[in-house]
Structures are given as structure tokens and as C-alpha cells.
Specification:
heterodimer, A: mainly alpha, Formate dehydrogenase/DMSO reductase fold, B: alpha+beta, Alpha-Beta Plaits, two-stranded antiparallel ribbon, 24% helix, globular
């Protein structure tokens, strides 16, 4: 199979890009992404060299922190890109088509960036081969790993297909159904934990799918806005505005349902919902969902779409951190000098992991865009 | 109870243990009973456990929860020691993605330190908070480490070097294992032997003659969070 000009950009375009990069003409965002990657890489290396105890603020009381929430965030963004690709293909076929390869490519790199954050959290990442050698089929985490691998594989195949103009409905459906199962199993990884009432919910897998759709679509909307600005193809605007509104409304309903169940329940551990109610209403619903929705309603321009999407992306990142960490707010067995409520603040090394993941996505996408990788898919189909 | 009788309890449990060890492993069923009326909250079990298993800071296999009860002037203290419950339906075993933790046929929930990937899912899933993550802390900080801090761990009857990356509990989940390395040598668990109030009983509940079997057959016995369906094997005498 041809690698250059299909999977990767054409060789001469890559060479051109490297020479402009050496001359300092690759664009400020590329250099920022490289700086982020160096800093983030140094952070991840420090975690492995110095050990988690000296670099991260997770503990036995807060076993999962920013790294896991970053993983969940990027995994859901990836799932959201696929959701967007499916709905785009189904309902806005011609308008959406020029963006298909970009969206699937983004789905792939966000899945990989999420995995980088996850790997930095594990105490023994070198033992991950045991998922294959010594699997436990009763573990939701095992199934998540199986479906995550299947997800990345199917995305890769779909990406190659798009690049080679081998479009098939079967593949489109497969590249939708498998990610849906993947992100459902990620939701059940949390939702099945009966010991953490903040997670425990049959609603969580569905919530994960829709909040993934929201964040993935927001990222794709920014790419679409960039394309509108650079190509003048304003037909891309409406599909993304519409999808963003549907996603915002869906997540709003599900967030309300989750909050209502949590607040009205008297079971021990559910008090987290009551204690964080004001924050959830103001930030989790008001700023994260209602304001972006209103912006989309009243500012129907490319700028409105970008502002709304940026708010969604930032708010959803905070929502993932909140979801992961607040689960540990009430200690399971409070003893000795343990506080009544556990608080968590990420360390600088954990923040560097986030920077690394963001930089991977930004850098790979920028290189692909600037070297004309996505033109391969659109050129011949015109 | 007189001091002689107290001594007898340990001797009786010692004899029960010897009898259990003569049986094949799959015919034993290790369990623990804690008499809450006899617990004086001295934390000798906690410190004994820490020195036995060389646990690093923030890792307690057997903490004792203290609670004030009642209102002045009718107040008192209540203590709840919490070892690993060695559940018959353990949620930690169910969620471990790589089968690094499993239920042995003698009832013990064990961890393979060479297999654990350090994902901490078991910590999240345990309803008793009985599992801890060893992130590599030392009591004396980073500059100077005392000998006891870097000594080999003898948990599960194996040798784990603390300063080794490959064969160390660092990076793994850790928990109480009923001092199985002592039990299999014919010694009672450390918390049982150090308990000042002689509130802790240990033995094989498959043995009808064992002291623990007789104790847990009474009506004043409860299990912690039994309603979760985890079938804990630590019995509290109230």
C-alpha cells in the first residue's frame, strides 16, 4: 500500500514543510505545540523517573486524578469526532464531505493522545501486555481496552478508506457502532462501580456518549470554521451549528437527570451532588451548556460557532475532571487525620501531561494540514 | 477474663492453626473475627501490622476507626478495626483487568506484585477502602532512608525488593493478606498476637472445633457492609 500521498503527506510536501520549519516559517502554533510537547514529554519522563509519589498528587484517597480525566476527555473527544462523522455523512453528506478525512484523522489522534495521558498514570505501564496474556473478562477495564483497540483499528481503516476514496456504507456503520460500544464501555467502567455513588449510574454510559459527541463536535466545528475562513466554503457552517445545538441540548437533559437523581437520593455518598449543586448549576450547566447554546442561537456566524466551541471544549475538560475527582470527595473509610471531605489539586507534572496530550493533537494535526494530507482525499473526489 | 485465660485463647488459636495446616489448602477457609466490645483502641494491631509488612507512609492494612458516641455526660468511644475483608465475592477481583488479584482456594484474596499494572481500579471498587496504592513514599523522605524502609518485603511468602522496579510493591495496589507468610509457617497473624484486648480471632472456619468457628456461629455477629453482596469473611462480634 502507498504510504506517502495516502496515509502520510507526499514526500516533497513534507520536505517543503521541514525546510520552512527550519527557517522558522512554520507558524507560531507549530512552535508552540513543539514547545508544549517538549515540556509535556519532560513531565511524563519525570513521572516515570522520579515515581508517581514524588510527582503526582493522586493517592490512595484520590486514586484517579487529572491524568485519568484527561484520558477520558480525549477518548470522548475521539468518540465525538466519530459521532460527528456519522451524522455529517448521514444528514449533511455533500456539505460535510470535504471535512470527513480531517474529522476521522482528529478522532484517531485524540484517541492516541488520550492513551498517552492514561499510560502516564499507570504504576507499571510496561505490564500492559498482560491485557492480552492474562485477561479478566469480568472487568469493565479489560473490555474497554478491547474496544479501544478495535476503535483505533477501525478508525485507521476508515481513514485509509477515505484517503483512498474507497467509501463503503458498511465501514461507515462499523466506524460508528464500534466507537459507540467503546465509549459505552468507558462509561460502564465508571458507572458500574457501586462503591462510588457519584459514578454509579446506568445513565453514565449514555451521558458519556452524548458529552463525547458534544466535545468532539466542538473540536470539529473549530476545524470547520478554519476551513470556512481559508476556503470560503460557508456551506460547512450550518451543519456544525445544528449538530452543536443538538449535542448541547442532549447533554443538558442528561446532566439535569444525573443531578436530579443525585440530589434526591438519600444514599450515603450521594451528598456530593448536594454539596456541589450550586457549582454544577452555575458552571456545569450555566456556563458550559446554556451560554454556548445562547451564543449559537444569537450569533449565527463563524465567530459565534468558534466561541461557543471553545467554551464547550474548556468546560467539558473541567467537567471530566470534576466527574473523576468528585467521586472521591467522601472517603470510603475515614480514619486517623483524614479530612471529612477529600480535596485534590493536580501537580505541575500532571498539568504537563495535559499539555503533552494537547500538543500531540495540535502538532500532528497542524503538520497534516500544512503538508496537504487532507487535500489527497478531497482532490480526486471533486 | 483472667490473664491465664487470655493466654489460653492464643494457645487455642495456635493449636487450631496447626490442625488447619495439616489439611490440604483447598479444605481450609481462613477468616477473622473481631470482638468490638474487647477492642480498646490501642492501635497495637495497626503498628504491629506496619512493622510486620514494612508498609510505607499512608498505607495501613489494618487501621482502627475511632468514633465518639452518645452525648455528654453519656459519651463513649467506639473502635472499628478494618483489615481486608477477604470477601467471597470480591469486587476488587472482579474489576482487575489483568487478573493480578484473585481469590485463593483457602479464601485469601491475594495480589501478584509482578502482575499488577497499577491502574488502581481495585482501590476504586473496594467498598471498604481496604486497598492502598504504594506510590513509593518513605517515612524519612528522599535524602536518607532508614534500613527498615528499604528492607525486602516478605509478603505472600515471597521476597520483594523495595528498590527494584520489577519486583517491588511500589507502583502496585497493596492490602492486608492475613499475614499469610506467617500463617503458612504456623504463626498467627500479627494483629492477632499484638492485640492487647485479645479482640482478634483468626482461624479456619471449615474446622468445626476451631475457636473462631464457635464464635461466629453465635447471634451477636455481624459483617461490615454485608448488604453489598461482597460476602466479607471478617466477622464483627458486637
Amino acid at each position: 500500500m502507498q504510504i506517502y500521498g495516502v496515509l502520510l503527506p507526499e514526500k516533497n510536501r513534507l520536505k517543503e514543510w521541514f525546510s520552512s520549519f527550519r527557517q522558522g516559517k512554520a507558524g507560531i502554533f507549530v512552535y508552540l505545540a513543539i514547545l508544549g510537547l517538549i515540556l509535556g514529554g519532560a513531565g511524563i519522563a519525570s513521572i516515570f523517573i522520579l515515581g508517581h509519589g514524588h510527582t503526582t498528587n493522586t493517592s490512595s484517597l484520590v486514586p484517579w486524578g487529572l491524568q485519568i480525566s484527561t484520558y477520558v476527555y480525549f477518548a470522548l473527544v475521539s468518540g465525538g469526532c466519530i459521532f460527528t462523522n456519522f451524522i455529517g455523512n448521514m444528514f449533511f453528506h455533500e456539505k460535510y464531505q470535504p471535512l470527513a478525512s480531517r474529522v476521522i484523522f482528529m478522532g484517531l489522534i485524540t484517541a492516541i493522545a488520550g492513551f498517552a495521558a492514561l499510560a502516564s498514570e499507570l504504576g507499571h505501564v510496561e505490564r500492559m501486555y498482560l491485557f492480552m496474556v492474562s485477561p479478566n473478562p469480568s472487568s469493565p477495564m479489560f473490555w474497554m481496552s478491547v474496544w479501544y483497540t478495535a476503535d483505533i483499528t477501525i478508525l485507521l481503516i476508515e481513514y485509509i478508506n477515505i484517503q483512498r476514496h474507497h467509501h463503503s456504507k458498511g465501514m461507515l456503520y462499523a466506524s460508528f457502532i464500534i466507537p459507540v460500544i467503546t465509549y459505552c464501555s468507558l462509561g460502564s467502567l465508571f458507572g458500574a462501580v457501586g462503591t462510588v455513588p457519584y459514578y454509579y449510574s446506568s445513565l453514565l454510559p449514555i451521558y458519556f456518549i452524548f458529552s463525547g459527541f458534544l466535545s468532539g463536535n466542538a473540536l470539529c466545528a473549530i476545524i470547520a470554521a478554519w476551513q470556512i475562513r481559508s476556503t470560503g466554503n460557508s456551506r460547512l457552517l450550518k451543519p456544525f451549528q445544528r449538530m452543536q445545538r443538538i449535542a448541547l441540548a442532549s447533554v443538558l437533559v442528561l446532566t439535569f437527570c444525573r443531578l436530579i437523581i443525585g440530589v434526591s437520593s438519600g444514599i450515603s455518598g450521594y451528598e456530593v451532588f448536594r454539596e456541589t449543586l450550586l457549582k454544577n448549576l452555575l458552571l456545569g450547566i450555566g456556563v458550559s451548556l446554556v451560554i454556548p447554546f445562547l451564543i449559537l442561537m444569537y450569533k449565527r456566524s463563524v465567530g459565534g460557532l468558534v466561541i461557543s466551541s471553545l467554551i464547550v471544549l474548556a468546560a467539558q475538560f473541567m467537567a471530566r475532571l470534576d466527574l473523576v475527582v468528585e467521586g472521591f470527595r467522601v472517603p470510603t473509610f475515614r480514619v486517623y487525620d483524614m479530612p471529612e471531605r477529600i480535596s485534590y489539586m493536580p501537580s505541575i507534572f500532571e498539568i504537563l501531561v495535559v499539555i503533552a496530550s494537547l500538543s500531540i493533537v495540535a502538532l500532528v494535526y497542524l503538520i497534516a494540514e500544512k503538508t496537504g494530507l487532507f487535500e489527497i482525499a478531497t482532490k480526486e473526489s471533486r | 477474663m483472667s490473664q491465664i485465660e487470655e493466654k489460653d485463647i492464643l494457645e487455642i488459636m495456635g493449636e487450631d492453626l496447626q490442625r488447619a495446616l495439616k489439611k490440604p489448602r483447598n479444605q481450609r477457609r481462613w477468616a477473622m473475627a473481631i470482638d468490638l466490645k474487647r477492642c480498646i483502641g490501642c492501635h497495637a494491631c495497626t503498628t504491629g501490622c506496619m512493622s510486620e509488612n514494612l508498609t510505607p507512609p499512608q498505607i495501613h492494612y489494618r487501621p482502627v476507626k475511632e468514633e465518639e458516641i452518645g452525648e455528654f455526660p453519656n459519651t463513649g468511644m467506639r473502635f472499628l478495626p478494618r483489615p481486608c475483608m477477604q470477601c467471597d465475592s470480591p469486587s476488587c477481583v472482579q474489576v482487575c483487568p489483568v487478573t493480578a488479584t484473585w481469590k485463593r482456594d483457602d479464601g485469601l484474596v491475594t495480589i501478584d506484585y509482578k502482575k499488577c499494572i497499577g491502574c488502581r481500579y481495585c482501590l476504586v471498587a473496594c467498598p471498604y477502602g481496604a486497598r492502598s496504592s504504594d506510590v513509593g513514599h518513605y517515612y524519612t523522605g528522599d535524602m536518607h532512608k532508614e534500613t527498615y524502609e528499604v528492607e525486602n518485603s516478605g509478603e505472600y511468602g515471597k521476597t520483594f525488593r523495595r528498590k527494584s522496579h520489577w519486583h517491588s510493591p511500589v507502583g502496585n495496589a497493596r492490602k492486608c493478606h492475613f499475614c499469610i507468610h506467617r500463617v503458612e509457617k504456623g504463626e498467627l497473624t500479627r494483629c492477632t498476637t499484638t492485640c492487647l484486648g485479645h479482640a482478634t480471632y483468626f482461624g479456619d472456619i471449615n474446622d468445626p472445633q476451631a475457636l473462631i468457628t464457635k464464635l461466629i456461629s453465635k447471634t451477636n455477629v455481624i459483617k461490615y457492609k454485608e448488604e453489598l453482596g461482597t460476602k466479607p469473611q471478617v466477622y464483627y462480634i458486637v
